[in-house]
TrEMBL record:
Coiled coil: none annotated. One of its GO terms (cellular component) is protein-DNA complex. The keyword Endoplasmic reticulum does not apply. Residues 21-78 form the HTH lysR-type domain. Keywords: DNA-binding, Transcription, Transcription regulation. Gene3D superfamilies: Winged helix-like DNA-binding domain superfamily/Winged helix DNA-binding domain (1.10.10.10). It comes from Kluyvera cryocrescens. This is Morphology and auto-aggregation control protein. Belongs to the LysR transcriptional regulatory family.
Amino acid sequence: MAFPPLFPKQTMTDALTNNRINIRALRYFQVLAEELHFGRAAARLNISQPPLSIQIKELEETLETKLFERTSRRVTLTRAGQVLKTEVDRILNATEHSLNYVRANWP
């Protein structure tokens, strides 16, 4: 799905099909967008904070847009981050549903 005003250089589909974005990056983004705190998000993902920060930075670089506003006291989603959160929730839910369906029907 393309987001022309927010993701001007490429579509999400382009980024996914060119292997520049993976499911792990989307999951890390999703959890950080829910927690709005790097420490809590990292704990929830059972990782340390640096890999989370690196993955989010790489995702922002790939999409060529800022997804989070960061200050020393808080993290908030940008408008692009809000749009992406909606799409990532949809993508990851569909992926989980598909995997569960296959597991249940083809042991």
